[in-house]
Amino acid sequence: MDVERFLAGNVALGAVLVVALAALGRANRSFLRDVGRDGDAPWRLLARLALGLGSALVLWVSILDNWRQLVSLPYLHSRRFPSERIELDPTPEGVRRVTFALIALSLVATACLVARHVGGYGIQLALLVSAVVLWAPAFVVRQRLDFTLALGGANGSSAVGWLSYAVFLLLTWAFDVAVILLCYAAALAAVALPVTLLLDVTRLRCPRTTEEAQAFFAALGDRTGTTRRDR
To answer: How is residue 210 annotated by DSSP?
Structure first.
């Protein structure tokens, strides 16, 4: 059925991913607001650039590439024999090159924001290890669900059949989105480590002291000096 084919397809998965990202953004809107209102103008511009690159990546892959093929690449490239690394109905090479370019640009821009606003090496290592460890079981379950989904889900036209298919479809989408986010999180943590080191070496990671803060500390120093003289 056309409806089932669409729901099991890449565009529908991309739409679900957009909804999931919007929900995550809403849950962390105060943090994102702080990132967007960084005291340094170049970092505010970088935050907008990272948002634009991330949005372009999601739209590009959802419309022209294939999410399920993309997140399967680590598994395929870990196979020993070339015959085990064959993709069925592969994405055109030109489209995949643009995808990789968007991923690289998005990772670098977002990694800079992670280094500045989230945390340093310990948090990034923990994120990398956690994402890699969680990826394996999530990918295995997702493979099983996707295989069953490809066989067709709704049994007949009964309400019970469509209800069970809807529950199964939601579960499949949940694991697909989880694998996508875990892949991005692992890659982001791996990129953030050298980016953080570079920003530390160039002393660009920590926010600069603003003029308001300078006035505050100057007033605090004057008050401390006055107190000492009074004593």
So the answer is: P
